[in-house]
Write a structure and sequence with these properties.
This protein is mainly alpha-helical. A two-stranded antiparallel ribbon has the order 1-2. Helix 2 packs across helix 13, helix 3 packs parallel to helix 6 and helix 10 runs antiparallel to helix 13. The longest helix has 33 residues.
Length: 276
C-alpha cells in the first residue's frame, strides 16, 4: 500500500514537472536567445547556450543606444495610473451595485454586462475618433482612459459586496457615519483582498497591451515596452536576439511585483476573495 502511494506520488510529480516544462520552455528560449547573435537564433541543431560565445552586446545596445528607459517609464506610468483609477472606480461601482442597491440598479448593471459581449477590436475605431476629436491622440491618456472603466472588474467587486457583512456598515450608520464615511472606514479595508488580486491581474493585462499603443501613439518618445519591441522589426526582418533581450528586461517589473505580492495573491485566491 505504501509502495503504491509512492508510485502514484512519483508519477504525479513527473506529470506536473512535464507540464511545468511546457509552460516555461518559451521563457527559457527567450532567455537563451537574448545572449545569442542573430545568426545563432534559428541554428540547427538547437544549442541552449554558447558558453564560449555569450553575447552581452544585445543588452548593452538596448540599455545605452535605445530609448529603453523612456519606454519603461511610459509603461509604468500608464499601468500604475490605470490600475489605481480602475480599482477606485470598480470598488465604488461594485459597492453601489452590490450593497447599496439603488433603484433600477439591476437593470443598469445588466446593460453594463452586455457591453462585455462587444468585441474589443470594434471599440478601437470609435476610441480613435473620440481621442482625435478631444486632442488626446498620441498621449498616454489615450491608453489610460479606456483602461479605467473595466466591466469585469466592476462585476468582481459587485460579487464581493453581495456577500459583504452588512451588519458592520449598519453599525457604522447607527454611530452616525454616512454612506461615504462608512465606505471608507468599513467597506474599503475589508475589500483589501479582492482589490489586491484585481490590481495584480490588471497590472499584468495592461502591461502587455499592444493594439492601443499601436493605434493611438505615433511619437517614439511616447512608446511603451510593446511598441519598443516592435521597433526592432525592420524592412529586412526582425532582430530576434535584440527583441528577446528587451523582453527579458521588460519582465523584471512584472516579476518583481508578483514575487513581492505572491503570498497575498495566492491567499486571496485560496480564500475565494473573487467568488462569484
Amino acid at each position: 500500500m505504501l509502495l503504491s502511494h509512492k508510485v502514484r506520488y512519483t508519477v504525479r510529480s513527473i506529470i506536473y514537472l512535464l507540464i511545468g516544462l511546457i509552460f516555461i520552455t518559451p521563457l527559457l528560449w527567450m532567455f537563451s536567445t537574448s545572449f545569442k547573435y542573430e545568426s545563432q537564433v534559428f541554428e540547427r541543431p538547437f544549442v541552449f547556450f554558447h558558453w564560449d560565445q555569450i553575447n552581452l552586446d544585445n543588452y548593452k545596445h538596448i540599455l545605452t543606444e535605445t530609448a529603453f528607459p523612456t519606454w519603461m517609464w511610459n509603461s509604468l506610468f500608464v499601468v500604475v495610473i490605470s490600475v489605481v483609477f480602475r480599482l477606485l472606480l470598480s470598488t465604488l461601482a461594485g459597492y453601489a451595485f452590490g450593497y447599496l442597491k439603488f433603484r433600477y440598479s439591476e437593470i443598469i448593471f445588466f446593460f453594463f454586462l452586455t457591453t462585455m459581449f462587444i468585441p474589443y477590436q470594434l471599440t478601437l475605431l470609435p476610441q480613435f475618433i473620440f481621442f482625435r476629436f478631444i486632442g488626446l491622440l498620441d498621449t498616454h491618456w489615450a491608453l489610460i482612459i479606456p483602461n479605467i472603466v473595466d466591466i469585469l472588474s466592476i462585476f468582481l467587486m459587485r460579487q464581493f459586496f453581495l456577500t459583504f457583512p452588512k451588519e458592520l456598515v449598519q453599525a457604522a450608520y447607527i454611530e452616525g457615519s454616512g454612506i461615504f464615511r462608512s465606505f471608507i472606514k468599513i467597506a474599503l479595508p475589508l475589500a483589501k483582498t479582492p482589490l489586491l488580486t484585481l490590481g495584480l491581474l490588471s497590472f499584468f493585462m495592461i502591461w502587455d497591451q499592444y493594439y492601443q499603443p499601436l493605434i493611438f501613439l505615433h511619437s517614439k518618445e511616447m512608446y511603451t515596452i510593446p511598441m519598443g519591441l516592435q521597433s526592432f522589426q525592420t524592412q529586412f526582418g526582425k532582430q530576434y536576439a535584440m527583441q528577446m533581450a528587451l523582453a527579458c528586461l521588460a519582465i523584471i517589473p512584472v516579476l518583481g511585483v508578483f514575487l513581492a505580492l505572491q503570498k497575498q495573491f495566492i491567499a486571496s485566491i485560496m480564500s475565494s476573495g473573487l467568488k462569484g
